[in-house]
Every structure is written in structure tokens, then in C-alpha cells.
Fold these 4 entries.
Entry 1:
Amino acid sequence: MITVEQVTHSYKQTKILEDISLEVQQNELCALVGRNGAGKSTLIHIILGLLPMKQGKVHLGGISNKKTGWKKKVAYLPEKFQLYPQLTGEENMHFFASLAEKELDEQKVTDVLQQVNLLEARTMPVKSYSKGMLQRLGLGIMLYYDTEILILDEPTSGLDPMGREEILQILKSLQNKTILLSSHHMDEIRQICSHIAYLEDKKITKYTVEEFSNHIPFGGNTK
């Protein structure tokens, strides 16, 4: 579902990624990990067509990211998702849903808000939400789009243990989704991921979670 072939990227005179190739299979939940500055966000931005490639190819759902059709197959949740604080959670859902569809599906909005445990808070202004609630609302908006592929950049960053667990439980509950998420929390990755793509020294290696635990000599996180 996500195919990266021989991607290279440089910033000014510094090479960030060199001949990167990665394949995330259909319905696979794969973590993208690496130390700070390894290029995780850079690779995600290249996959999404937000940064140019010096060389290489990217396909999402079988469509090149240089074409337009892939955007219907992918939803992206950045680390800092910009919501409208003066609007309620439900109003934010309505606004972002309207960007994808001409006709709003009210039942779908209700179902997604329930899925991310925000149904009771739907009429509260977003400025009163906790960071965990904001992150769940962002994830809910992505789920409303009902795409085959989800790409999440540090979805639990800055959350307390309870907020992190809520996000993890939602991700674990998803069916028929191909997910690539960047994270530095190895305990989270072990809970929900089947594979790990490890960025180091401009290269990437894909492991099963078990293989990664045996190969990489650090424990709690990848920072």
C-alpha cells in the first residue's frame, strides 16, 4: 500500500536520506523510528509530496504521489494539528468533513466522535479540550475521511499516560487500515505495531517488532 523506492533527499549540502526503500503492506501497522534528526518527518513529508525528492519514487495505494488520485486514499495527522479553538468539537468535525464531501454525513460524524470517545464533549468549545482530547479529535477527523491509509506523525507526543493509552486503544481497534506512524516510544510500538522501519545513518531497515528488539541496543524510547 505504501511503497518507497530509492528515495534520496538533501537539505542544502547535507544529505538527509540516501537510497531509501520501504514497503508497508496492506493492513499493516508499521512504526517509523529513529533518533532525533534521523529524518523521520522528512520521509513522511516526502511520502506525502510535501518535499521534493532528488531521486526515487513513492506510490500510495498503487498511485504515484506525483499524481492526484492518491490523496483520496490517504489521511495524514501531523504532530500539531491545527483546529479552530472557538468552535466546538462537533463544529470542527463538520468543517473538516466538508472539505472532503459536499454532503455531510451526520451519522458518520456521530459514529466517529463515539469511536474517539468525544461524543459527550462534542458541544464543548475546543479551547476547553485537554491535549489528549485535541489529539483524539484530530484522529477522529482523519477517520471520518475513511481512507485506506493513515499516516500519523508522533500521535501521542506530549500526552500523559492516560491520553497515550486512549490513542493506542483507538489505533488497535481500527480494521482494514494500513498505518505508518512515527514514534519514539518503544513501549507503545510493541503494543500495537507488527513492524518497525528504523532510520539510521540516512538508511532504513524494516524489522518485525521481535527482530527489532533483538537487534537494537536501546530500550524505552528512540530519542
Entry 2:
Amino acid sequence: MTRVTMIAAVGRNGVIGDGETMPWHLSEDLKYFKRQTMGHPMVMGRRTFDSMGSLPGRRSIVITRQPDWHHAGVETAHSLDDALTLAGPSDEVFVVGGGEIYRMAMPYAARLLITEVDQSPPGSVTFPPIDPDDWLETGREQRDGFTWVSYERRS
């Protein structure tokens, strides 16, 4: 079974974006995202793909309801289950957004890599709550303006 990891930058108010863009630009966190996801398949919704495009060194699997949506170099799925099947045998697959995809993937996730951003921006797209009964914090690294926090599922 492929290990599912969700990776997200989340404001203090749970906001991850406004449906089109991220509410911050944290260069150090973008480098962290690249280090973590490099060489692994990434599963995302179509709007997340539209905002970030294809990233080198990683397979992009886009979940969309649009039956005829295609993009060069991108694999298309019409459900989370289809996307995880497409990811195939891989040591780890990263779910990279957006909010609806995170909510669908939460029950499948074994690990969360959360950048806690020290901001409370306006926005309509949020990350699902992290229930401490389900998740054990396994690491915390304070940076300037944000903190990298890792969680493992309690099972």
C-alpha cells in the first residue's frame, strides 16, 4: 500500500487560499515543499494545478470532474481512488490540495506535513481540522513567520 502524505501551508485560521492563489509567498517553504515532494507523485485538484502548473521531477495527477479536461504531461483522474490507483506502487504519494481534495484524502493519509503560517488571511479555502485523537505530532521546526510541523496517524 502506498503511503499517503498530505502537505499544506495553513494560516492560524485554517485558510490555505482563496480558490485561486495562496495568500502568502514563503520562499523557504516553497523550497521545503520541493525537497519533500521531489521524485514522488503529487495528487491535486484542477484549480490547484491551474495555480501551480506542472513541477519538474514529480508526476502530476489531477482530479477533475470535467470529463474532457487534459493537459500535456499530466495524468487525469475523476476521483481520489482513481488518482491513488494511478499513483501506483510508489513509496509515497503527496496530496497537495486544494481544500476539497484534502478533506477527501484525510482518511487515507498516514502523515501530515503542515506549515503553520503566522498569519490569518482572508480566504474561502481551508484545511480540514487535525484531530489530536487521530494524529500525533512528531516534529516541530520554528522558522521566521512559520513553523514546519509533522504528524503521524495514530493507529
Entry 3:
Amino acid sequence: MKRKIFARRNAKILGLIAFIATGGGLIASTAINEDNFYKTEILIILGCFFVISLVDHYRKLKESDDKKILTKRSLYILACSFIGVTSTWFINHKMGYGAVIANGLVGVMAATFLPNDLAGITYTSSFVGMSSLKVIPSMQAAILSSVIVGFVFLTTAEIYAGIGGKGGTTAALSTIITRAITRILG
């Protein structure tokens, strides 16, 4: 039992590290490429709040005691991630409606038929399906990215819960990981 708790906690710490890398990388690259000194100062201040909140989350994560690794809810999250990414990718690229219409359609359908939390997961996953063919070139890559975004959701569930920006960071992180894997395999 202790081994399962340790594995679950390590997966969450890995998710936290991935969020740190994604958010920190976006803040740092924006600050480096910004010519306006005042905007750079603001980004540095926001970066400090980012670091403080992640340190606080890490402290809480170390104290948590997770007992179950795979639950019914985990399967729902993986299913919603799959539906969000693949249906948006299909509507976008195979049906030719474009990324915004595909994302909007999936979002409205999710909000209509799913509970709020699962609708949010489906909608966020659909951001990944909006990627161009250069990033996610096939349905197989879309399926891979749906699995990745599902695992990102499972390992980062408590990070920034209820605070704006998590959906975009989750989609960005999942897309970066998918792109790296498809480059390695392709």
C-alpha cells in the first residue's frame, strides 16, 4: 500500500514539475523577448507569485495521503480527454470547419451533456485538438495527445484548482509533450 501511495505522490510531483517548466518557460521567454522594461518587471513579479504558489502546493502535496491510483473518476477524465481532443481534431482537420468552430462545438456539447468538472476537462482537452497538422499530423497523434492530456489532468488535479490559466497551461504542456514524442517516433 505504501508503494502505491509513493507512486501516486511521485506522479503528482512529476506533474507539478511539468507545470513549473511550462509556466516558468513561458514567463522567462516572454520576459527575455520583451523590450519594454516595465512589462519585464511585471512579468518578474508575476513569476514570483507563480513560484510562491507552486512551493505552497508542493508542501501540501508532500503532506497528502492518496490511497487509490485508478478510480472511476480517473477513467471518466481519460474518456473526456479522448473525446475532447479527437473530436476537435476530426472536426477541425477532416471535416474542415476550422479550429475555433471545432473547439466551440465540442465545448457547447460538453457543457450541455456533461457535469461541470468533466465538461471543463473535455473543453480544455479540445484546445489540444485545435493544433495545426504540423503539430498533431494524424488521428493517431491526436489519440496519443488525448492520453497525454488525460494523464496531465490526473497528475495535476489539485494544482491551481479553480484559478484561471490552468486549462491553457494543461493544453500547452500536453501539446509540447505530444510534439516531442511524434518528433522522436517520426
Entry 4:
Amino acid sequence: MSLLLQIAPSDSLTKVVADLNLGPLQEPSDVAFTFETIGWPILAILMLILIIVFSFFQIIKYKRNQYRREALAELKKVTAGEMNLTHCMVLVKRTAIHAFGREKTGKLAGKEWFSFLDENAKNVAFLSVQTEVEALIYKDEMPENTAKEKIIKNTKNWIATHAAR
């Protein structure tokens, strides 16, 4: 309080501060940035465990979907003309047996089979090409190019997106 009373209105602030004689600024010592607290090793161990668990589940998922990759590789041979178009339905049946079991899919045929395919995958419409597929399989008649492309597209979509149970 006494300091405030001593300052005259004509004195500038710099003159008043110079008269105080505060001396040099005293800076605090530097703060050390180290990882010596217990939280950092715990965080590192938790992150390592999470990475290992995530990698483990990704490897399991990769191995579980190997049959899909193999079927899609065979489908590429069909599209390249190395294999007959009827092999598309062989691939779908084999994939369905692997994913859903022989008891459930082995006995399906005709409209029931095509309905099963449409219900268990995304963006698949095998019922729309049922007559062309049956003519291809049973009469060995090659469908038109548009129907052929639909069969290949549906086969690819079914193998890639079916929901295995």
C-alpha cells in the first residue's frame, strides 16, 4: 500500500520500476521431461498387448477367409477363359458347403438353391439368371454376353460377401 502512495501522477511507470531495484530475473530450473513415471511403462505394455491381440484376430480372420481367396482366384480363370463358365456354379456350391456345411447346402437345388444364394449375400440376384444358369448346366447352352456377365458378377459378389454362419 505504501508503494502506491509514493507514486506521483507525474512519474512514469518505467521510472517507478527502475527505482524499485528488483534485481535480475530469477528463472526456475528446467523441468526434466523423462519417462520415469510408472504410467508410461504401463501404457507401453497395454499398447503392446492391444497390438498383439489385434494382430492375432487379424491372422485368424485372414486364415478363415482363405477359401474365399482361393475361389476368387479360380473365378479369375473363368473370366480369362481358361475354365468353363459352368465352373462358376461349382465354385459357389463349394464355397457354400465350406461356409454353411454340407448338410445345409448339399441338398439344395433349383429355385430353393438360388433363393438361398440370394438371401445369404449382398448385391446378389441369382434368381434373375436362374433359367440361363440351368440351361448352361443341364443343356450346355452358352448364355448371351449380358447373362454371362451377370453370372460372373453374381458369383464374385456371392463369394466375396456371403455371411458365413
